[in-house]
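Form 7-S
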Amino acid sequence: MTEGYKHTVTERLMRYVQVDTQSDPNSDAHPTTGKQKDLSNLLAEELKAIGVHDAHADEYGYVYATISSNTDKKTPVICFCSHVDTAPDCSGTNVKPILHKNYNGDDIVLPDDTSQIISIKDYPYLKEHTGNDIITASGLTLLGGDDKSGVAIIMDTAKVSCFAPGNKTW
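Output:
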């Protein structure tokens, strides 16, 4: 495996959210902004680096890739699908992800705008995640974690699949 691609899902997510993929609801283009293709092209290159030889992004920003089966048994084909665009509600530029390791159960004050507080009063289910790692934005942008966490999981699944015993990609 290439040294630059030994990423965990968390590391991937932290990188992917920093790529500005903000959509434009007033655009008739597909994707609605050209910058959305930046992440698509990055994903295609990462897939190639882990051995997915046919990985590519098309003119619409869709990423296609095929991972060979690791068995001779007849099995169904699986398609993984996620989107990369982020909401136009808040800037997608200069996203600063923050990894709150071993969350202590207190309110989370976002450092770049301390008026932005993720409070346990408003979100009591946060207490259930005490001791877990939580990722937020710094307070000035949206994180974009809904779509990009799906992408990070898909990419990690692709990496694991490429290195599965019997995979014919290698």
